[in-house]
Design a protein that fits this description.
- By secondary structure, the chain is an alpha/beta fold.
- The chain has a single domain, classed as 3-Layer(aba) Sandwich (Rossmann fold), CATH 3.40.50.150.
- It contains five helices and six strands, in the order H-H-E-E-H-E-E-H-E-H-E.
- The chain has helices at residues 16-19, 31-44, 78-82, 123-133, 155-158, and strands spanning 50-54, 70-75, 89-92, 108-114, 134-143, 169-173.
Length: 178
């Protein structure tokens, strides 16, 4: 089911580029969540994989002992991304203004989106892009949290009926059978 137009709105309709113009060196989730997410990555990601860390920031949740072939980062603030020690390369792009990723088809083994999917106004377009850049059988891991910049989240994420129920993470595999 696609989102209705009114579900794509945000309390703050200004450009996300302006909102993230200044770096925000904050941690959006607690230590227990970070540990569970890092453990999930350790369990599901394969050594020497090519990873796309979508909507990333200065903090990496990738296990420090996991050797990866390449980690491509994406976000809205270059200063934050430059401080992320796991990124081999990064680019800045507002996916709500331009959801087309400047990445080759079938070029990543896994795509990660850590507690940021609620900001996407066209999630179906971005998820089609994730599918496009994943290798066949690739893995997408999307984690969710009740902690966010509410004014920049789309309506379903900005007004949860039970915010405490969002404090979980999930892994889905896309690339085969989708």
């Amino acid at each position: 089911m696609l989102l209705l137009p009114e579900q794509r709105t945000k309390l703050d309709e200004s450009s996300d580029t302006l909102f993230y113009d200044l770096p925000r060196f904050v941690t959006h989730v607690d230590d227990a969540f970070i540990q569970r997410l890092t453990d999930l990555y350790r369990e599901r990601l394969t050594p020497q994989s090519r990873i796309f860390d979508m909507m990333s920031s200065w903090v990496s949740h990738l296990p420090s002992d996991l050797e990866l072939a390449w980690v491509e980062g994406h976000g809205l603030n270059a200063e934050e991304l430059a401080k992320n020690p796991r990124l081999d390369h990064y680019f800045v792009q507002n996916l709500n203004e331009d959801p087309k990723l400047p990445l080759e088809d079938q070029s990543f083994d896994a795509v990660l989106n850590t507690v940021s999917v609620q900001y996407l106004q066209q999630p179906e377009v971005v998820f089609a892009e994730i599918y496009r850049i994943l290798k066949p059988g690739g893995l997408a891991i999307v984690s969710f949290s009740n902690r966010m910049f509410y004014q920049k989240a789309i309506a379903p994420g900005a007004r949860p009926a039970n915010p405490s129920g969002w404090n979980w993470s999930s892994a889905i595999s896309i690339g085969t059978g989708l």
